[in-house]
Every structure is written in structure tokens, then in C-alpha cells.
Amino acid sequence: MKCTARVFQKALLEWFAASARDLPFRRSPNPYHIYLAEIILQQTRVEQGLPYYERFVKRFPTLEALAQASEQDVLKQWEGLGYYTRARNMHRAAAVIMEQYQGRFPESPELLQLLPGIGKYTAGAIASIAFNKAVPVLDGNVKRALSRLDALDAPIDSPETERLLWKRAAALVPKKSPGEYNQALMELGARLCIPRAPFCSECPVQKQCDAYARNIQDNLPVRTPKKPRPHYAVAVAVIHKNGRYLIGKRPSQGFLGGLWEFPGGRIQAGENAADAVARECREELGVAVRVVGLLAVINHAYTHFRVTLHVYRCTIVKGKPKPNSHTDLRWVVPDDFKTYAFPKGNHKFMHLLAQEGIE
Known about the structure:
15% strand
């Protein structure tokens, strides 16, 4: 069964008009607000991302304000949301738009994709929602919905299937109200056509869905089996001196780029955690330390791997710290932590540093 585009569009738009969530970025035609929402909600649930959106709009009310802000200020507002490359690219894109487009967003998806951090999906979302361009979108929710609509049995994460889904999405997007339609399709995947136990009884396009007709919706989409997430043991040095702690800024490029952290690194095979802390301090900072004692053992999960942080209190016995692995080093008191952007894993033990008797 192949659904008719016009019937599908009509049913979806009517449902969206009656049932759409009242979200702040949907109340505003401002392209900047739509852009912020799209970047923040990439790989992030609306419930988690909405407070960040509201925080960004308050702190950076205009594109110009975002462009003029420091990277550290932007990262601090982003702190805890993950995928920090999104924040750095958003900051850079704001500067490009101010410099090259006189502060006005380009309207075509082709030009939007030239901006840092904007791919095909985000460009389509901005172009259709903000500028009424009849271009498709294909995020995770849309992929799932379309794969069920056509009962695709090929892995949804394969390049061939993605090309097929982009073609299908383009064929379904209407020339009239494409932004509303794209939001409706994304909303369908987010609220009804969910990964497990989809709410088919409430679906406005149930009659057009091949998977529902064949009662295989719970088996779709098909995915390539995931490999187990690797686990790493990491040694972390909390170096204390005269009431202050040493933190380093990670290089802007790369994992957790631009964030501040306590020095440390992976524990090598055959090495115990305390020895690893001392070695990392020699390599990263060029100093010899005395390992005073274990402060905490913290488990933390990232998207593609897990870590166990072995956090040790240390004091420097020889040398002056140098930023061999960081772009900057600073001695800060615990009250200063709130002004720096740290990875989530660090936050799990930082509250201990404000306690008395840490030395």
C-alpha cells in the first residue's frame, strides 16, 4: 500500500493544527529563534532542551548578541547539554551571518548548509519553517515514521536507506505550508510514532501506514546491531594549593572542546590509578605531585563510551604547571567553578571540593 501524498498531508496537518504542542519557538516567526531551537534540539528531547532554549534567548536575545559573546560564555550556557561542538558551531555561524549576510539568515537550504554546524536536515528545517521553502526534513523521528509508513525492512541507518528516505520525504512535502507540514511530521514521530509501542490508535495517518496494515510496526525500523560501548578507566588529579584548584582548558577542536577540566587521562594497562595520576601530571603539566588520597570514584556515560573516573587529591612537590595538553591553566577557588563550563563527569565530584578538610 503506497499512501497518497495529498491525503497524507491533509490528515497530518489537520492533526497538527488540533494537537500541536505549544512551544515557545513555534510562537515566533523569528529565524533566529527557529535556528536556536533546531540546534539545541538536535539529539535532545524537547523536555530536556526547552530550558536551554529559554536560557539562550534570555542571555543572547539577538543573533548579534550571540555573535558578540565569548565562546566561554556560550559554552557555559550550554553546559550539561552535551555535544559541545553544536554550541561552538552555533557561535561561529552567528559571527558568519553577521559578517557575510549583514545579520540576516540566508533563506535557501544550499546557503544555510554553508554555515558551520548546519547540515541537510537543519537547513531544511530552517528554510521550511522560517522561510516557507518546500524542502524536506529527515531527523530521527521522521526516519522512524517514514520507515513504518512504507514498511521498510532495510536497516534505517544504512546510507542506501537514508537516500531512499530523503527521496520519500521530498516527495511528500507540500508546496503550501511546508514548515507546518515538516513540524507536524517531526511531532508525529516524537509523540505517537515512538520507538517502542507506538500509539497507532491515535495516529492521524494510520490508514496510510503499511507497517500498521501488516501489524509489524513494533518490529520497525530495522537497525544495524550496535557494538558494545567501550569502557575506559580514567585518573583525575585534583591539585590543591592555598585554597585553590588547578583546572585546564581543553583545545577548542575535538571532544569536549573548549571546556575546563581537572587534569588527567586514561589509566594504561598494568598501571594502577594512583600511578596514572602522577604520570598524567608529569606529561600534561610537567610537574611532580604527591598523591594525597582518593577523593571519589565516579561512573559516567557518554553516547559512544563509558568512563570510570578515579579522582585523587594531589599537591605539587616539584615544578610549575605548564599547559602541555591544554590551551590555558588557572588556579581557582570553588566559588569560581560556576563561571567555567565543565564536562558533566567533573560536576559529579566538584561539590566535594567545597567541603572543609579536603587537604
